[in-house]
Write a structure and sequence with these properties.
By secondary structure, this protein is mainly beta. Helices cover 9% and strands 51% of the residues. The chain is built from four helices and 19 strands.
Length: 369
């Protein structure tokens, strides 16, 4: 009996070994809470405790299984959380941020599922805020992630790295809709330049057969104590909503397809922005940016903005931040500041947004685990 027990234990161990010895799963996340004050030139004010000025609160799981020979199976599940209430960021999804499975190979990485866009992934390359609250680019809106997405990312070769995504429509889609993305990033010492593109097809039978496009050109230079950033964007992904002249997007920022019924898809905007930061100490980083949104259709929906901010690392995992920022709308424009997560406390009436200048101050803490 003793020999049988030893043999059975050895057999169970042998069966278990391939599952665990070559696999690794990491649980990770962040909490990002901040006090936010906004004031409109209309006289209205908002004070709120918000989530996600820099890195929205989240809980995630990522795993890797080494298959040998430079191959590995990978997955990631990530959900957004409203840290100030504990509620899920999206009540309709268990994991609203990312849900993908993939394969890493010597020739690049392949993934399938809900994934971040190429444009969203390059947030750190665009400005010193990592394209979050205070960024004029973020105030316009950035396509963030899509369902049913197939992707490929190449290894970096001679400084170049390439990305390609193709998100299919729903299984019941008969209009041949899709969202395609392309990206190229070149890194050479302190210099980085790149391009990221998104094109969302309108239905074959669309009343307004205009695809939604987002073209992002960026560059930055690391001068040792900080970086200098420049970005140029051309896109038609904004529309009037809820009485605000630029209150919504034609292509959802976190999913969805182009309906092909919005005439504002014909109007293109140019967003330009310059920024820089400086490391005062190893723990303290300060920065500034200025940018503008130009309505190329002649509709006068233009805006200008700036941001001054500071980040202080208490440790490798905990960071304090504080910013002052302003977004000035021309009479026909209706843009609002936006963070890593959408603001709960913000202006929602036309009188407080359209044609108004919105000023803000926030201070917060981010903890990663």
């Amino acid at each position: 009996m003793k020999i049988q027990k030893i043999a059975a234990a050895a057999a169970l161990t042998a069966l278990a070994t391939p599952i665990f010895a070559q696999s690794g799963v990491t649980i990770y996340g962040s909490f990002d809470q901040y006090y936010n004050h906004l004031s409109s030139s209309s006289g209205a004010k908002v004070n709120s405790l918000e989530d996600g000025s820099f890195l929205r609160s989240r809980l995630g799981f990522r795993g890797v299984e080494d298959l040998g020979g430079g191959y590995a199976a990978k997955f990631q599940l990530e959900m957004g959380i409203a840290g100030n209430s504990g509620a899920p960021a999206d009540a309709t999804r268990g994991f609203d941020r990312q849900t993908w499975v993939g394969m890493a190979t010597p020739y690049g990485e392949f993934r399938a599922g809900r994934q971040n866009t190429v444009i969203f992934f390059r947030g750190d390359y665009v400005d010193f805020t990592s394209r979050t609250l205070g960024s004029v680019v973020n105030a316009f809106g950035v396509p963030s992630r899509f369902d049913n997405d197939l992707s490929y990312q190449s290894p970096r070769i001679a400084g170049f790295q390439f990305d390609a995504h193709y998100a299919l429509g729903t299984p019941a889609d008969v209009n041949n809709q899709s969202i395609s993305q392309l990206g190229v990033d070149y890194l050479n010492g302190p210099f980085r330049v790149g391009y990221a593109n998104l094109a969302a097809k309108a239905p074959k039978t669309a009343v307004i057969p205009q695809d939604v496009k987002y073209d992002n050109y960026y560059a930055n230079y690391d001068y040792g104590r900080g970086k200098i950033y420049a970005v140029y964007i051309k896109t038609n992904n904004t529309t009037a909503s809820g009485g605000l002249n630029n209150g919504g997007t034609i292509l959802g920022n976190v999913g969805g397809l182009v309906a092909g019924t919005n005439a504002e898809a014909k109007n293109f905007y140019e967003i330009t922005q310059l920024s820089a930061d400086y490391k005062v100490t190893n723990a303290l980083r300060v920065g500034a940016l200025t940018g503008q949104i130009k309505d190329t259709s002649g509709g006068g929906k233009n805006a200008k903005g700036f941001d001054l901010g500071a980040y202080y690392d208490l440790s490798k995992r905990t960071m304090l931040s504080a910013h002052v920022h302003q977004l000035a709308n021309d009479p026909n424009a209706g843009f609002r500041p936006s963070g890593s997560a959408g603001l709960k406390g913000t202006f929602t009436t036309a009188a407080d947004v359209n044609g108004q200048t919105i000023k803000g101050f926030y201070a917060g803490i981010v903890h990663r685990f």
